[in-house]
Structure formats: structure tokens, C-alpha cells
Amino acid sequence: MIGSIKKIVALCFLTACSSILNAQSQSISLDSCYVLAKRNYPLIKKYELIAKSKEYSLENIARGFLPQINIAGQTSYQSDVTTFPQSIPGVPVLSKDQYKIYAEINQPIYDGGIIKEQKKIQEASSMVDQQQLEVELYKLKDRINQLYFGILLIGEQLKQNALAKNDIQLGLDKINAQMANGTALRSNASALKAELLKAGQQTIELTSNRKALIDMLELFVHKSIGENTIFDKPLSTTVLPTEINRPELLLFDYQSKILDVQNNLITAQNNPKLSFFAQGGFGKPAFNILSNNFDPFYIGGLRLSFPLTGFYTIKNNRELINLKKENIHIDKEIFLFNTQFTLRQQSADITKLQQFLKSDDEIIPLRESVKKAALAQLENGIINSGDYLREVNAEDNARQNKILHEIQLLMAQYKVLNTTGNR
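The chain above was modelled as a monomer; its predicted structure follows.
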């Protein structure tokens, strides 16, 4: 009975410890860092500002269809007035001073399509602003890559550092056993202890650098990342995309679209316009020029206008738009050229790193066999601790090189994904 209770207590203790460890060792992925960095970067707040600006601008443009009300007044004095050769009973002598105050309402009926095109320009302009933000936010991926893969690299280096310390400790144990038997010098043990302490310093440095990178990553993702967090290693890919889907390409398209709408606006500005107008007020004289009294008046009707002065510059304006479109097209070609150039460099780096890894896979077994032989020779007193340490360090360097090449290859592959815009 007591034994059963002890087993239950032990099981509960293990379960609690497991829960605590699981809670402490959370995991994080590269893709989640992309999402969190974009969501929490201060620049993201501009999306709301762009949306609000677009809303207010479209409302103002739409109000162009509302009645346009104008209040005006006029006073004048003229050198002469209409007179009659003979005085006519009931017709006074007209005053040379005249006064008029009135209100005018102008209701557009057809504006030639100006408001419609202005709305399109505003919408296209907002899309350009939003896409420019996308371009800026896309640059975050490179910064996240540098931090994330840096953390992965140091993590692997810490594992190798632990293996190297273990190898040194094995040699030290052999020397201590020989010293106990009086077959080894204390200086051999001192050399191994010094190297073990040096490896410990490397552990401290690597741990400190890893924490610094994690702290910087926390600023981007706006999330607490513990030192025990597991950083998921992204999957390596052998087939890399060549099609370019960068946000800059969409930005070029939106910029060109604005110019197309501006071209349509030039046409609309030179179209005939039709509106209804009404005018009313007081005047001296009003419409009756034979009256010297202040009288009310009103007038209403349709007004048709067909501006012809715009045709003086319409051809040049269209040519200016074409030049701007050509400039955008050249910028797009330059961007694609530079991107293709970068991809070729990255492809060459990937090929080089793949060849390095093949060599690493051949070098490491050779160095490992030499180290094992050196350990046996150290145990038998054939070589000293310095000779053994040389072989331990040689294998450690070979493994460190492979770790570096693996992470560099993985980072190079993800650089290609980011350069092409397929990540």
C-alpha cells in the first residue's frame, strides 16, 4: 500500500515537472516571426492613416455633385446712363450709381466625368501608398532572417562546444588516472584544464551573443522569448523558385495605373459641362433698367460650357504622362535586372556551400578517427596532452565549419525565397 502511494506521488511529481518544463520551453518559428514583426512594426499604423485619408478625400470629391452656392454683391458708378431725347412721364432720370446683392446656386448635371476620374485617381493613389508600405515592411524579412539564423547558428555552436568540452574532459580523466599511477606529468593535466576553461569561456561568449540576438528579435516580434525557447529549424529546400513576385512589381503597376487615370482626367476636363443655375437677390436697378428703386429679382436656367483653352496643352500633357510611364517602366526594368543579378550571386553561394558540405562530410569522419586514435595514444602514454588537444581542436573546427556551412546554406536558400518574393 505504502509502495503504491509512493509511486503515485512520484508520478504526480514527474507530471508537474514535465508541465513546468513544457511551459518554460516554448517554441517559435521563422514564419511566426515574420508575421509578428509585420504586425507590431510601428510603420503598420500608417495603414489606418492611409485608409482615413482616402475616405475623407473621396467624400470631398463626391461633394462636387452638391449644389454650389455663392453669395456676391456689387456696387458701381458709371459715367453715363441711358437717356431719352424727350422726357417721358413716369420715367425717372436713371442714377449713375448701381447696386446689386444676390445668391447663386449652381447644380452640376454633367461635369464631363471629372469627379469620376478624380475618385479613381484617389483610389489609385491610396493603393500606391499602401503598396509602398508593403515594400518597406517586406524589408523586415531580411532583418528577421539575420537574427533568427544567427540564433540557430549559435545554438548549434553551443552543442558542438559541449561536445568539445566532453572530449577534453575525457582526455583529462585519462591523464588523472595516469597521474594516480605515476605515469603522467602534472603539466599534461594543467594543459587540458586550461583548454577546458577556455572552452568554458567560449560557452559564456556564445551564450551572451545568443541572448543579445534574442533580445533584438524580441523588439521586432514584440513578444517575450525566453532563453529556453526552441527555435524551429526551417526546412531546407532543393528546388528554389525563379519567378519574381516582389511587392515592388505591384507598386510599379499601381504607379502606372495612376498615370492612365490622369490621362482620362485630361479628356474629362475638356469635355462639355452642363449645369442648372438659379440666381436671386436685390438690385438697383434689378432687371428693369428704368427703375431707380431696389427691386427683387431672380433668374434660372441651364448653362452649357465647352472649354476650348484646354486643347492648347492637351497634347503636351499627354506626352508628359507618357514620359512618366516610360520612366516607371525603366525603373521596373532596373529593379528586375538588379534582382536577377542578386539571384545569380545567391545561386553561386548556394552551389559553393553545397560543395563545402560534401567536403565537410568527408573531413569530419577522418578527423574523428584521428582524435579517437589520439585518445588511445594519450591513454598509453605515446603522446602528450598537447598532441591530443591538437586533434580535438582539429575535429572541433571541422564540425564547426559544417555547422556554419549548414546554417549559411539554409540562410542562402531563404535569401533566394525573399529575393524572389516567394516567402
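The two ends are 60 Å apart (CA to CA).
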